[in-house]
Design goal:
The structure is a homotetramer of 109-residue chains. The first copy, chain A, is mostly helical and 109 residues long. Chain A has a domain of 71 residues: Orthogonal Bundle (Helix Hairpins), CATH 1.10.287.1080. In chain A, 64% of the residues lie in helices and 0% in strands. In chain A, helix 2 runs antiparallel to helix 3. Chains A and B meet through helix 1, helix 2, helix 3 and helix 4 of A and helix 1, helix 2, helix 3 and helix 4 of B. Chains A, B, C, D: It comes from Leucobacter iarius.
């Protein structure tokens, strides 16, 4: 078994998938399904109340992130790079001056 | 406006949220809702077919990742660290020997 | 316990909720969260393959429907009536002539 | 065009699908994806606040219900019948005596 000490999340994920031969199940479509399935489990931690168990939420969030990283890798992109790319778009859509302290959608600002 | 050249995704996200005073909306519950909402939009790219537009998928995936990072930051944890934490659990649950090439849930192996 | 022989789904649901004093948890927001949580569980039946177990899918679909009925009742509307209302809108947006055999969104037709 | 006056929701839905030849897209898997996609749009009405616009929520709920009906029909089952079937299971899992006024999962009661 691979020693993961010091491994990055992406390299550890790749090892886990490779060792189990799971790439065959990881079509982009199946990964997109998996992301929303895990996101639903994360939301279940808040189903009846805004109160939450931080340990459970952390692990459910990790599941969502893991499938997001798997899909990013499958698309050949870096998670941080695409977040930065999208943040630039968000900055342009929601100028700080007009969107400060407002949760409205940009087309309603 | 902050110059983001060379910024990490997390620091760029923090700046964007701070400049717009959006932290007030970012309760863990609201972020969990946002993650599943964005995950649904990602899945919409695959609604009727496994074929997809890689540029659209990349941007939708970035939206899911962005809210995941915001929730991680709100919980005071690092996205990569919690992925690594959870991968260790997954390694134990799904030994490579018994789960190789199988998509079954660990309790069905 | 209420005898449900011959009861409609809505009246049986109302009895179940009333007997357990669950209405206090059923804010529209919590029911909307519940609907997407259960929808994720339904999708899990198709996570890695389009093949499915019809008995499991039927019960997961019933869970989604049950929370949809609970939300409809909370809003004071009838499930069938709002489906009919929305179908009229869909008919106008997607004329049979231009949308026949096409899955594209109406704004792309 | 079919005159829908007095039609049931299910028969109106069947006509709409048949006239547009959409059944070819309605595999159970695609309908399950569609249900969760629409459920995400419903939740979006509550993304930042429990306050909501009843007209928008009603139409988003109708979208979820419509795909639920389409999947039920595809499985050859009646929506009300499967709700009643599942309510019986829920009654047994959550006896009124032990679950009254509690939102906990049945295995935590």
């Amino acid at each position: 078994m691979t020693d993961l000490t010091g491994a990055t999340a992406m390299s550890a994920l790749r090892s886990l998938i490779a060792e189990r031969e799971w790439a065959q199940f990881h079509s982009p479509e199946n990964l997109a399904k998996s992301i929303v399935i895990e996101a639903g489990e994360l939301l279940e931690e808040f189903q009846w109340s805004p109160d939450f168990d931080v340990d459970r939420v952390r692990l459910e969030l990790a599941d969502v992130l893991t499938y997001c990283y798997a899909l990013a890798d499958r698309l050949g992109v870096d998670p941080d790079a695409i977040i930065l790319e999208k943040l630039e778009i968000t900055r342009a859509k929601y100028p700080a001056e007009t969107s400060r302290g407002r949760s409205a959608k940009y087309d309603q600002l």
